[in-house]
Amino acid sequence: MTDIPLLSLAIWVPIIGGLLVLATGSDRNAPLARMLAFAVAVAGFVVTLPLYTGFDTTTSAMQFVEVSSWIPRFNINYHLGVDGISVLFLLLNAFITIIVVLAGWKVIENKVAQYMAAFLIMSGLMNGIFSALDGVLFYVFFEASLIPMYLIIGVWGGPNRVYAAIKFFLYTLLGSLLMLIVLLYLFMQSGGSFYILDWHQLPLPIEPQILIFLAFLVAFGVKVPMWPVHTWLPDAHVEAPTGGSVVLAAIALKLGAYGFLRFSMPIVPDAAHELSWLVISLSLIAVVYISFVALVQVDMKKLVAYSSISHMGFVTLGFFIFNPLGVEGAIVQMISHGFVSAAMFLCIGVLYDRVHSRQIADYGGVVHTMPKFAAFFMLFAMANSGLPATSGFVGEFMVVLGAVKYNFWIGFIAATSLILSAAYSLWMYKRVVFGKVANKQVAELHDINAREFAFLGILAVCVLAMGLYPFPFTEVMHTSVNELLRHVAVSKL
Amino acid sequence: MMDMQTLYLLVPLAPLAGAILAGLFGKTIGRTGSHIVTILGVAVALLASLVIYQDVQAGNTFDGPVYTWLVAGGISFEVGFLIDSLTVMMMLVVTFVSLMVHIYTVGYMSEDPGYQRFFSYISLFTFSMLMLVMANNFMQLFFGWEAVGLVSYLLIGFWYDRPTAIYANLKAFLVNRVGDFGFLLGIGLIAAYAGSVNYAEVFAKAGELATQEMAVTGWSLITAICICLFVGAMGKSAQIPLHVWLPDSMEGPTPISALIHAATMVTAGIFMVARMSPLFELSDTALSFVLVIGATTALFMGFLGIVQDDIKRVVAYSTLSQLGYMTVALGVSAYSAAVFHLMTHAFFKALLFLAAGSVIIGMHHEQNIRKMGGLWKHMPITWITSLLGSLALIGFPFFSGFYSKDSIIEAVHASTIPGAGYALVCVLLGVFVTAFYSFRMYFLVFHGKENFGSADSTPHGAAHEEEDHGHDPHHGLAPGEKPHESPWVVTLPLVLLAIPSVVIGFITIEPMLFGDWFTGVIFVADNHVGLKELAASFHGAAGMAMHGLQTAPFWLAISGVVLAWFFYLVRPGIPVAIQRTFKPIHSLLENKYFFDRFNEIVFSGGARLLGKGLWKFGDQGLIDGIAVNGTARLVAWIAQMSRLFQTGHLYQYAFTMIIGVFVLLTFWFNRG
Is residue B16 part of a domain? Predict the structure, then answer.
């Protein structure tokens, strides 16, 4: 293992780089801001690579650990580390940041430096969330990451951006305040420690466990988002610029799900078992109810937003059936959803940049004028409906298998997603891409350019690679997931 | 000599390479380049399959992994091959028919702008289908299963600006997904209870599974597994009520109707159940279910063939009915007869579809058989091969279809499983119906009066030269124009398919049904009759055909042919009169038993209605309207109210303070 503080680099390279981009100032320097942002994004990705190559898959202990005292008076530390559950998200996050910078290259003309900086800073903050081992540090990153996203929606968003941004902010703030109370409670109970792994070992009676679990459920459930606290997401997506939607779907939603694995399940395992029926029910509602809602959307972005919620239902379902297939399937699903939802939003962005409409009814016959785009969009729509050989299949397959093992009927309900996701994805595809050329605007479309081809192509490779050979992804998480499940199976009462 | 395992890999990868080259670099390598690489890929796969066939015949089978896809929860998911007699037979059928279709396509699609794309798709299909049949585990089976569904979707919607085509392909994909839903649950149950998805390991535990009950529901585990798996087969092999997608799939170009929707993909369900015989044999309930579904499909889909006027749709309903026969064979434990019929059917049905395609080219994209007639003069090769195909289809003695269909009927006759009586009636009546609709079509197309070329029958006839051929289904011959025989790339595959359609049954019945070709691959429990009685009375293929001349199925078939001849060539007035007299029945058949309308209203409409309801009422009404914005309004209201107290008048504040002090003092004095 190296002495280079890799995790700190993963966090601070994008943040400091983002500040540098910000320093380029006005739009007169926009080309410089773009180039610099791209360089920072690539550098941010490069520093996360050793985390994977140097990762020891045989241990469930935290790796690449960094500790230094931050606020000694309250025993708050700058404490970082990753295990098999979190490490992949740093890579995913850094990777998506490159895509986002590319995606915003030509499209954003207004306040370029600020736009790029917001994404870079957010990327660093989210790496902080995934690697923080200190409760306060986690909380600070968690809250701080709201600000860039709030600005991205509020500044570069659509006409109704202010409503959406405030709704997003208040919704998530409500959840995180409850989390703050829990963190303080745990600090007291553990005799003055904010170290998350200490909390994992902390014995707690069932009543406080239940309350803590419910507080976490609200905090993380809003982020995921779980039904019924999901209504901020479609609004946020519709108003957000394409890059905002990509990061929101690909990374930000994963923060909530990650919280369940790092906090709810190991800290209050008895409550997690006790209330698993609740989470499972909410997840199944997300899978079925939200799929039907997605089916009837007339706005493409809303449709994909709802489909995201439905896919995240698989994630929370996978966690709370407490078997390795379920949990690993859920994590795989999170990563796959990072690729697929990003790609779906980028595809819609490609269309929106040309026609300035997201209404399905404004399209039809796009394949005639944009054949390359149609091929990519087909691949991603299929991945969204969980076709084997794409990444979308792997996680759903594992979670359904795990669910059938846990209870046949739960598996039965979850598997309906096979039909429903195909219905909403392909019905939309049919109306947008197939058919005769619908109107003059579609007739005048020009196919994707090299830059668009590049980012869609990279994502296509990721989607296929993960679908054909998921082994390297799951190999990293085995030991940590097994340790988590072993830990959760032991009562703390 | 090449290593056998490399050869196994070569079989699916050669068509895949062709698909990738034609798909991604189609512009660069051009039209000719595209068909050369794809035909070459499939030809290599066929040759390799032949070598593997020799090897399997020499007794060398293989079961092993290629690479580990994923390990989770103690289950290893692998990509691997199982090469045995069943696999290699399927490989030969798939690669041979695929090669014929590839060659045929050179002629059939020659004017289509999507030429390269088409070749890429059919090669991709060949790859997927080979992965499906060569799998040694359920995960890969499911992969191939869905991949062929994807290519089918792409090909049905190949002409993507036709509204009917893109409606049909979405429908096909979704109906197949309903089947896959059951299939996935079946795999889930297997993974949960057997702890493996590898065929060999699961079959080894089959006995154990048969004694278990499912947690929660208390059902017999093995029955639940088999029925779930069979639901998958019902989707892919188009059994009632999941058959609705297959007739509509005829919107795709004819070569794929032959390859995918007749010869190979739709038989995947049959193949799968035969492969799973060690499981199905343990559940009589599941077998009865399979039998009844199959028998119903065999007869009732046949009826629909009688009222169709579109040449491709007649053949499509015939395919549905024949798939029903195969399913019946599975239900009575005659798995090898099912697979045997699968093989003979692949040849003669691919032939019939390709011949129909040849007719369609000759007629300049006219598909209505009422507007044809007398084509035998103009298209002799198509005519003769169609006749041979039709004779095979109706099970005329010595033709391939006779051996396979007669074996199935005999097996049903001997079976004692519940539902066998009903099935026997269905399959016997089905023979008559098959003969009737097949020869109705044959006579209307190739004999009788020439109904084409008159001004009223071809409204768009004159325009066809200027327009793009592939894109409008309703062309036709110009007045006075005569159809011509198709080019050699089209007729050569017809001839090459006609040969096995005639002779393959005669040659292979003995080893496949009564020899030990499938020993150790297909399993029949001791309490099931299967083909045992038939084997006892079998004395050579020629003897079986001679005997066949004296049995009921033969006379049923003959009477079907004669009746069709009488009705459509001698007295065309009779069917019209019957149609008028039995209007309700005719309308029931015209509307295909109202399955489509039911699905349209209940499932399609119901889902949209439910979605709208949940969205408008649940999300926008309750959650956003009352909970979220309601909270916001409540906060605003409270703020409004409390603002009223902030009047800024000192005397009001002072007054409030005094009252407050007064209240507190009251409490203070009364505390004790």
Answer: no
Residues B561 and B640 in one domain: no
For residues B232 and B315, membership in a common domain is answered with: yes
Whole-number pLDDT of residue B91: 94
Q: Would you state the pLDDT for residue B328?
A: 94
Please give the span between the terminal C-alpha atoms of chain B, in angstroms, as a whole number: 107
Residue B330 sits at φ, ψ, to 5 deg, of -60, -45
What residues of chain B lie within 8 A of the CB of A470, using their CB?
69-70
State the smallest CA–CA distance between residue A328 and chain B in angstroms: 7
B551/B626 same-domain check: no
Of B184, B619, B623, the CB nearest to A415: B184
Judge if B288 and B424 occupy the same domain: yes
B385 occurs within a structural domain: yes
State the residue range of the domain holding B636: 618-670
Classify residue B520: in a domain, yes or no: yes
Q: Domain tally for chain B? A: 2
Q: Quick check: B297 and B330 in contact, CB under 8 A?
A: no
CA atoms within 13 A on the CB side of A341: 33
Q: For the residues B636-653, what does the mean pLDDT come to?
A: 82
Asked whether residue B626 falls in the same domain as residue B564, the answer is no
Q: B537, B570, B603: which is the final residue of a domain?
A: B570
Q: Which of B413, B433, B431 is nearest to B423 (CA)?
A: B413
- Using the 3D structure, point to which of B570, B585, B607 is the last residue of a domain: B570
Q: What is the Cα–Cα distance from B452 to B372, expressed in whole angstroms?
A: 6
pLDDT digits (tens, 9 = 90+) for B249-288: 888 899 998 888 888 999 999 999 999 999 999 999 999 9
Does residue B603 sit within a domain? no
Q: Give the whole-angstrom CA distance, residue A184 versus residue A180.
A: 6
Tokens read off for B350:
């691919």
The alpha carbon of residue A114 is apart from the nearest alpha carbon of chain B, in Å, by: 31
d(CA A239, CA A164): 7
Segment among A50-54, B457-461, B502-506 with least mean pLDDT: B457-461
Question: Is the pLDDT reported for residue B178 higher than 50?
Answer: yes
Report pTM: 0.90
Domain boundaries, chain A: 6-480
- Chain A residues in contact with B612 by the CB 8 A cut-off are 296
DSSP H or E segment with residue B67: strand B62-72
Global ipTM: 0.90
Sign of CA dihedral A277, A278, A283, A289: positive
Do A294 and B70 make contact, defined as CB atoms within 8 angstroms? no
Q: How many CB pairs under 8 A join A and B?
A: 147
Nearest residue to B263 via CA among B101, B64, B441, B119: B101
Select from A167, A295, A408 the Cβ nearest to the Cβ of B608: A295
Q: What pLDDT does residue B3 have?
A: 82
Q: Compute the residue count for chain A.
A: 493
Interchain pair B188, A403: CB under 8 A: yes
Based on the domain organization, do B554 and B624 belong to the same domain? no
In this structure, are residues A87 and A51 in contact, taking their beta carbons and an 8 Å threshold? Answer: yes
